[in-house]
Amino acid sequence: MAANEDASCLFCAIISGKIPCHKVYETEHCLAFLDIMPISEGHTQVIPKYHAVTLGDLPDEYLREIGPIVKKVALATGVEQYNIVQNNGKMAFQHVPHVHFHVIPKPNETEGLIVGQQNWPQTKPENDVLAATCAKMRQRL
Ligand SMILES: *[C@@H]1O[C@H](CO)[C@@H](O)[C@H](O)[C@H]1NC(C)=O
Ligand SMILES: [Zn+2]
Predict the structure, then answer these.
(1) Is the CB of 5 under 6 A from ligand 1?
(2) Where is motif Histidine triad motif found (predicted)?
(3) 111 in ligand 1 pocket by Cβ < 6 Å?
(4) pLDDT tens, residue order, the chain (141 aa)
(5) What total number of domains does the chain contain?
(6) Edge-to-edge strands of the sheet including 23-26?
(7) What ligand is nearest to the CA atom of residue 45?
(8) Which domain CATH number covers 106?
């Protein structure tokens, strides 16, 4: 259960287990799980177990715990180059109103985040493909 839980929030539902996820890593205050529409293999969301819409609303104790987890997850992708993206507000491309840090591997020039492109080049892998990626990342933690 997220502190300050919002019943209509997708990420709060993932934290409480009402919606399943491919869990990569979890601590008392944070959760890391695979994005189900990844830009590249290993694209992960790292979120606080506290419903805050933007970073400015998030208590520092959650933020302190997130930083090292973002690093740990980035290393667990096994890809040397990557983007960490954290959007705040609709106009700033935030689609889920619960603070989240995207970890997006950049394996080569064509895959991963391409800044300037209008839409993120999302893919839609099958559940077993996501499960395999998740298992691979967990082994690297
Ligand atoms: C880019 O990296 C991905 C993931 O490793 C790979 O599947 C793809 O073939 C690569 N593309 C190029 C052009 O090297
Ligand atoms: Zn929430």
Answers:
(1) no
(2) 98-102
(3) yes
(4) 788 899 999 999 999 999 999 999 999 999 999 999 999 999 999 999 999 999 999 999 999 999 999 999 999 999 999 999 999 999 999 999 999 999 999 999 999 998 775 666 778 999 999 999 999 999 988
(5) 1
(6) 23-26, 30-34, 44-48, 101-105, 82-85
(7) 2
(8) 3.30.428.10
Pull the structure tokens for residue 124. 């839609």
Instruction: Find the domain containing 101 and state its range.
Output: 10-136
The answer to whether 43 is a known catalytic residue is no
Q: Is residue 50 part of a domain?
A: yes
pTM for this one? 0.86
CA of 116 to the centre of ligand 2 (A): 29
With respect to residue 3, please indicate whether it lies within any of the assigned structural domains: no
Could you give the 3-state DSSP secondary structure of residue 72? helix
Q: Which atom of ligand 1 has the smallest separation from the CA of 111?
A: 1
- Distance from the CA of 107 to the center of ligand 1, in angstroms? 7
